[in-house]
Amino acid sequence: MKYQIACIPGDGIGPEIIEEAKKVLNKIGEKFGHEFIYTELLMGGVSIDKYGEPLTKETLEAARKSDAVLLGAVGGRVGEDSWYKLPPHLRPEAGLLAIRKGLSLFANLRPAYLYPELKNACPLKESIAEQGFDMIVVRELTGGLYFGKRETKEIDGVMTAVDTLTYNENEIRRIVKKAFDIAMKRRKKVTSVDKANVLDSSRLWRKIAAEVAEEYPEVELSDMLVDNCAMQLVKDPAQFDVILTENMFGDILSDEASMVTGSIGMLASASLSEGKFGLYEPSHGAAPDIAGQNIANPIATILSAAMMLRYSFDLDREADAVEQAVAQVLKDGIRTVDIMSQDISQRRMTQVTCSEMGDSICDRL
Ligand code: NAD
After folding, report:
1. How many angstroms does the Cα of residue 265 sit away from the middle of ligand 1?
2. Nearest CA owner, ligand 1 atom 32
3. In angstroms, what is the span from residue 335 Cα to ligand 1's centroid?
4. Ligand 1 contact via 265 beta carbon (within 6 Å)
5. Are strands 107-113 and 268-272 parallel, antiparallel or unpaired?
């Protein structure tokens, strides 16, 4: 099969980590008989330098025409680089918001997996880290409190601010279905997180989740209040498979879930729209402090490419192969500098560069 990938390296370490993800995809292509065709696009600071804006209409259009988008990261040294002298809507990060909106990406996926070799980086108690965890947070991305009507005005002489949290049943149904589809590719367990003891929007959320669950008899659905979920994530993260939630709860919980892994260079993410289209990117930023040194950890981007194989191209076997190769590299003691100190075993580790990490993963495919 042929797949058209819009490739947006962006700024900072973006080009270095994207190069390694492409290397791994090409190896997968060779091994499994697929062809990945890349269209290189500019976004962020590099697009400002060339076109005067972080995302041009042409770039957005080219991204839209592809089967999926693979993104590195955008941005520079905030406050230092000349990009930050521009008005906010012309800064590198404005490109991120514009592409997410322009591609109608309504489902954000953030996996949190604790590699046995990197347990030392987990900030939780040893007895909890010992159990390991493997979950994915599915967050609604285009509705709820962040997109509702808001205003600040004086009422009876008192300054009053109002934010509105609105969800309609269609918005809820489409994200719930995404979460169930994802659960079907995993351990078939969805925890739907809400605040149904207080919020109407959560009560509707719960009702729709229960309706959708009937279409997926193999998937187990449970509801959990958001305050309890925040506690359970640090008390017993192993219980979770797919955590499904609305925009603001997901914003907070996805950061909490990823931070308990402790390794920023390992965290993949995806944002999906209707159908199979999606944008895949590491959870970290452009890391300008280490850009151009060939020392960045490319694994988050490589794992994001694996998510692309799984969720946009339905190539589950190929995605499994990438994830297993990453796990094997870690087992073999190969580390970029950021994860070098995270292994407490007495084994000798081999420190590698960004490109050597890409090569090492390819060797194990
Ligand atoms: P960051 O994630 O870029 O870096 C935080 C720290 O983690 C730095 O010390 C960095 O060296 C390290 N780090 C990050 N990724 C790494 C990797 N793959 N390997 C090894 N070390 C890694 O966050 P920041 O410093 O807050 O932001 C830097 C720039 O990136 C800013 O301009 C910010 O706006 C932008 N940013 C972009 C995105 C995005 O493109 N999605 C996300 C977050 C931040």
Report:
1. 9
2. 75
3. 19
4. yes
5. antiparallel
Identify whether 194 is a catalytic site residue.
Answer: no
The verdict on the CB of residue 338 being under 6 Å from ligand 1 is: yes
**Residue closest by Cα to atom 27 of ligand 1:** 285
pLDDT tens across the length of the chain (365 residues) = 899 999 999 999 999 999 999 999 999 999 999 999 999 999 999 999 999 999 999 999 999 999 999 999 999 998 888 999 999 899 999 999 899 989 999 999 999 999 998 988 899 999 999 999 999 999 999 999 988 899 999 999 999 999 999 999 999 999 999 999 999 999 999 999 999 999 999 999 999 999 999 999 999 999 999 999 999 999 999 999 999 999 999 999 999 998 899 888 999 999 999 999 999 999 999 999 999 999 999 999 999 999 999 999 999 999 999 999 999 999 999 999 999 875 556 677 899 999 999 999 999 99
What does each C-alpha distance from 58 to 42, 91, 143, 278, 294 come to in angstroms? Answer: 10, 18, 26, 18, 31
- Start-to-end CA span in the chain (Å): 19
> With a threshold of 0.85, does the pTM exceed it?
yes
Cα gap 214→225, rounded to integer Å = 21
